[in-house]
From TrEMBL:
SUPFAM superfamilies: Acyl-CoA N-acyltransferases (Nat) (SSF55729). This is N-acetyltransferase domain-containing protein. It comes from the Bacteria. GO terms for molecular function: acyltransferase activity, transferring groups other than amino-acyl groups. Residues 3-164 form the N-acetyltransferase domain. It holds the Pfam family Acetyltransf_1. Coiled coil: none annotated.
Length: 203
């Protein structure tokens, strides 16, 4: 069965919260109020379905968002314009099945029309090689490290340039075409369609 990525629905927030808090030490825990804040304010909050069941979620915000993450602030102190992936969670039974790549392809499809680069972090605790390899294979590179004051955890700070952004800005400015995959709310796309949209790293 295909993976479908779509906007989260309000009635799914309890399931998203449970998924987040079962993800382990690589993901910071959330409470219901914090998750509701993301639902109300995050410009990108999408879930993945596989075989009709929730398989994961991704939350992202732009660099001008009012976001209190110390990792987000680290990026904002150094870069003027970016799309920040606050968290991506894939259900344990779905890991290794393409859900993470479907999310990153979808997030890039959204971000590259609006921001010159994407930012995220990987916690450097325990065995981080799979996560670093995943991000490296998707075009991210380390631009520094940061110790989170609230947790004491060190994170590798990663950025990815978005090659299409300059062309989009030169061609359309702020007047993007009125198409379902561009405007919000966005329609659902299968993983295969997202893979066709995703671009590689900049030359």
């Amino acid at each position: 069965m295909s993976i479908v990525v779509r906007d989260v629905r309000e009635h799914e927030l309890d399931s998203v919260l449970a998924l987040n808090n079962a993800a382990g030490p690589a993901i910071l825990p959330l409470d219901a109020a914090r998750l509701r804040h993301f639902y109300d304010t995050a410009e990108y909050f999408r879930v993945a379905e596989r075989d009709g069941a929730l398989a994961g979620f991704l939350i992202g915000v732009g660099s001008h968002a009012e976001h209190d993450s110390s990792n987000f602030r680290w990026f904002r102190e150094r870069y003027p314009d970016f799309f920040y992936i606050d968290r991506i969670v894939v259900a344990s039974r779905r890991r290794g099945g393409g859900v993470g790549r479907a999310f990153y392809a979808d997030a890039q499809s959204y971000a590259e029309l609006r921001y010159p680069q994407m930012a995220c972090e990987v916690f450097l605790e325990g065995s981080t090689d799979p996560a670093l390899l995943f991000h490296g294979s998707f075009g991210f590179h380390e631009v520094g490290q940061h110790v989170m004051a609230e947790t004491g955890v060190r994170a590798a700070m990663l950025m990815k340039p978005l090659c299409s952004y300059a062309w989009v800005r030169e061609t359309y400015g702020d007047a993007l075409p009125d198409a379902p995959w561009i405007t919000r709310p966005r329609t659902a796309y299968t993983a295969a369609a997202l893979a066709r949209r995703a671009t590689g790293t900049c030359a």
